[in-house]
Structure formats: C-alpha cells, structure tokens
Amino acid sequence: MRFWIKKLREIPVKYGWIKALLLGLLTTGIWANEWDFLTVNGYGTLGGAYQDNDAYLYKDSSYASRGSEGEFSFANYTLLGLQLDAQVSDRLSLTVQGIASPNNENGHWLELEWANAKYQLTDSFDVRVGRMRSPTFMFSDILHVAYSYDWIHLPDMYTLVPFNKYQGIELSHNWMLDDLYISSSVLYGQASSMFRDGKGNQAEGEAENAFGAYLRLIYNELSMRVAYSRSSYTYDDPIVNQGIDQFSTLGIAQISDFIERYQIQDTALDYVSVGMRYDFEQSYLLGEYMHFNTESFLADRSSWYFGAGYNFETWAPYVLFSKTIYKENVSNIPTEGATPEEIQTIMIANQLMRQSLEKSDATMDTFSIGMRYDMAENMLFKLQYDKKKRPKVELDVFSCAVNFVF
C-alpha cells in the first residue's frame, strides 16, 4: 500500500484533485477493518471492424488514430474497463473508472474516465465533484459499456460533440411519484479533448465555463430525455493556424476581419439533444436528435437516428438508420473596398477555404443491421453491418464483437 501511495504522490500538481481522490480511496482502505466498503466492477469488448476501402480510415471516434483501412482491425472497438466504488460513509462515496484501449483520447493505452466524489445531501439531492461523464445523450453514462446496448457501436451523433467528459461539479435531483420517475441535473466545469486524423496530425479543443442541464423522465415503458449545454470553446489546430498566420501577414483588412470573426477562440458553443425510448412486449423503438451550433469555422451539425429491435429468448435482431448534416457558418471573404491585387489574393483565399471545408464535410447517412446473442450470463456476441454514405465516399463495414462484464 505504501508503494502505491508513494506513486500517487508523484502525480503532477495540475492533477491534484485526481491525486486527492485516489489517495482517499487508498487511505480509506488502510483504516477500514474490512473491505466491504469497496466494490470493483469491470467491462470489456473484444471486437473489430473490416471495410475494403484502403484509401479511407474507418474509426469509431474523432479522437481515435487507428481503425480499419482496407483490413480487419481490432483497434475500433477493443477495450477493457475497471471501476472502483468506495462507500466512505452513509453520505459520501468515491468513484474511479479507467479504461485500456488502443484508441484512448489521451493517446495512451490507459486513461482515467471517472474520478469523482459524491455526497448525498438529502434523499433526493446529491452533488458530485471531479471528473464525470458529460450527460449529453441517452447512452452517455454507459458510453464504453457496449454490453448494455444491442449495437456494437453507438450511432454517429455520439462522435460529434467535441468532448464526452468534464471536470467540475454536478448537482442532481431524483424524484418518484407512483409510476413516474424524474431525474434532473445541472453542471458547471471545463473539458478538453484531442482530435486525430490517423495520419499523425492532431488538434486540441478546450471548453471553459461549460454549463449544462438535463432532464430525464421514465413512465412505465416510456423514457424521455433532453439536454442542453453551453461553453466557451477554443480549437487549436496547427495546420489551420499555419494557414491563418500566412493570410494574416498579408495585411488585407477584409481577410483580417474575416479571421477575427470566425476563428475558434473563446467561441460560444451550444448543443441541445432530445431522446426517447419505448419498450413494448419484447420489442423496442428508440431515437435521438442533436443540434450543435457555433459561429466559427466549425460547421453547425444536426444528427438524428431511429432504431428498433426485438428480443427473443437468447438473441435480438435490430435495425438502425442515422443521418448527420453539416451546415457551414462561413461565407466568402468580401472583396468590397479591396484593390485589384487584393481581390486576386482574396479569391485565392476563398478557393482554399472552400476546398478545406469540402474535405471536412462529414455529412453522412448510415444504415445498420445486426444481431446480439447471449453467450453466457455476463457475455454477449454481436454481428453488425453498416452502410455508410458520405460525399464521394461509400463504405461497407462488417463488425463483430464479444462484450462482457464482471
């Protein structure tokens, strides 16, 4: 135990809150007479994807750097997660969750997903402080626990929001009246994320002063959910920055004004999402909608999906259709008041910008069909086919996976 405490003390100062939480878990264990206060759970996926287009990298998230590029790849879905929960007192509990994956957001094999302390204020109110999952979608809390849903991977919209966890504080309220259950939360904090294109290029996003709220209602077999978030967002891409710097040095007023207006520096970022699921007999219907908005070079994004499935005794077939639409915020740089030489430069800048926006266009239709088979009490086997259509690109993706919990 002393060895682990020594290692934790070596954690950099900027991660002090994580250090304090982990030390709390260990020291609680040292002074406890028994380990009943500690619960350990795990989950994992052994799976991969194949698509035959070697000119395109298929990956399951924007921060992933590995995937299927004309071959079968285990990097798309394979991961292992472990969660430790410590009930320190009747009101105070600690949670730490980490995952091992070749496609973690931090670029390393190991990443800390959860690290928070929860205090039960009353029977209905609780507050969490630390690192938590951003409650953006219906499946956000179980984002990596594929055992908990029928699909091999979540719909496309789950990759659109630039961060899926944050550091901050969250106040929650739970209320039940007969068959109606209502859960609501408000949160405040900050978040950061890395984006990789699989070619060695990466960019970084940071959200400050992030405020969010969500509401969930469950009535018998019907569940509904709505979420909203707003933050001050900064996007740092070395390639984009290089192009901006080159045009800024030209000293053309129209280009400088354009860059100042649309650059992603402390830019307001908003998103809203709604979701619904209805279970009846052995069947279910579900769907979600999300809109992402920012006045910058980043495009506005709207995405929705609709799915259905039927549960037999040991297996369940399912279908799903999703659509994602990108809408650019920027228009051409105006030429009014420019000299003939400046107009020529502005036209070149507009052409380069259009080409860049076309390459980043992620408008997509995806049709998915698959099945889940119950191999054992805590183990599932899944097969899935995805037909993905993007501008100038169509992919046929075949996936298989084994999901398990322990």
Tally of contiguous helical segments: 5
Terminal-residue CA separation: 24 Å
Structural class: alpha+beta
Task: Output the CATH topology of the largest domain.
Answer: Porin
Q: Based on the structure, what is the oligomeric state of the protein chains?
A: single chain
Radius of gyration: 23 Å
* Unreliable parts: 28-33
Give the integer mean of the pLDDT values: 86
Helix content: 10-25%
CATH architecture of the largest domain: Beta Barrel
The major pleated sheet works out as: 16 strands, antiparallel, barrel
The rough form would be described as globular
**Count of DSSP strands:** 17
Major beta sheet, strand line-up: 1-3-4-5-6-7-8-9-10-11-12-13-14-15-16-17
Strand-and-helix sequence, N→C?
Answer: HHEEEEEEEEEEHHEEEEHEEE
The percentage of residues in β strands lies in over 45%
Blueprint of the fold:
Elements: H1 2-8, H2 16-31, E1 38-50, E2 72-73, E3 79-87, E4 92-100, E5 110-120, E6 125-133, E7 165-177, E8 180-196, E9 202-219, E10 222-236, H3 238-248, H4 253-262, E11 267-280, E12 283-294, E13 300-310, E14 315-327, H5 340-359, E15 364-376, E16 379-390, E17 393-405
Antiparallel strand pairs: 1-2, 1-3, 1-17, 3-4, 4-5, 5-6, 6-7, 7-8, 8-9, 9-10, 10-11, 11-12, 12-13, 13-14, 14-15, 15-16, 16-17
Describe the structure.
- The protein has helices at residues 2-8, 16-31, 238-248, 253-262, 340-359; strands at residues 38-50, 72-73, 79-87, 92-100, 110-120, 125-133, 165-177, 180-196, 202-219, 222-236, 267-280, 283-294, 300-310, 315-327, 364-376, 379-390, 393-405.
- With 406 residues, it is α+β, with helices and mostly antiparallel strands.
- The chain has two domains: 1-36; 37-405, Porin.
- Strands 1-3-4-5-6-7-8-9-10-11-12-13-14-15-16-17 form a 16-stranded antiparallel β-barrel.
- A hairpin with a 5-residue loop joins β12 (283-294) and β13 (300-310).
- The radius of gyration is 23 Å and the shape is globular.
- It starts with a helix and ends with a strand.
- Residues 28-33 have low confidence and may be disordered.
